[in-house]
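Example record

One chain of 344 residues, shown exactly as stored in the release files.
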Amino acid sequence: MKNDKTFEPPSSARIAYRLICSLFGMLFVTVFLPITVAAQLEGRIAYAVSGFNEKLGRSDFNLYMTTFTEKEDFETIALNHSGLYPVWSPKDDTLYFVQHVGTESHIFSIDVTKPKQKTQLTAIGGTYRFLSVSPNGKKLAFNGYTNQQLQQDNQIWILDLDTGEMETVTSIPHFGRTFFFFGISWGPQSQRLVFSLERSGGLEQLYLLDIETQEIEVLTEFNIDYYPVWSPDGQRILFRRWNREFDTLLTIDVETRAISPLFTVDKQTSMWTDWSFDGQSIIYSRWGVFYLYDIDSGKAEELFQVEGGIFAISWWRQDVLPVEPKQKLATTWGDVKSDSRYSE
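Predicted structure tokens for this chain:
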């Protein structure tokens, strides 16, 4: 069933509240307390932690990397860069992130094997958020607006890492007022992005965007759903749903739209998530503590904790799982498609 839906600007109260909870959890010098865990961990994670930046002389979000060793313990190093929304390149040791430069932000990259030098990737500054790397490692998706635009010009952009060119891939009408995205994730070996966008009435819904055709499809409706993360095999999307008393972490099957709740989490919790390489477990944070959740058993265990609020997590995977090609969508923004079977 097709519905012609007009997007209106969102309210801003919960936006400000959530940003405060996420950005200003706890501001202390970071101290890592590793412990041994029984779960099999591979790879490494990058994340931002609130703390004091000695170079700036003030509180900021600083980048760290933790490697899961063969002995099943942790090795953590400070990357000595301030930044937010860190994401790994799928092919090498490159880490991308957003950093504020004066009154604007830019997207940068570093090689974590020699992190002292950073490379600025955006030629024009702006307000940029929520990075996601394409499966081939050649493009970056993010949302925001340049310093030559108004805040209500907020859209999803694609940055070509070879040429440095930026282009918008959405044309969402703003009607002169501001709307906000809450998460972007690129589907593995596909041409699709999943993103969260707040609509009028305080609802946040998940959408699928075809990069080539710029067609958009509704994925969830009538709830407050945000921070989507696509699974490595491309079959599921992890996301968080706001409720009055607590929030719930869920997955949705991309093809059938079947939603499976995983567990609930307390309100006012700065929580970020990412998938393991095999898609069998999830790493997540609650304020300054990392946990590992096993999907089959439904059990979670604490990994390690930091003094400070964790902001965004990216789990580097050396390989990409095979994904069957998906049929292209056939929906435009002015003709958004949904199926009443999946409405809740």
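Notes: Confidence is low (pLDDT under 50) at residues 1-13, 19-39, 320-344.
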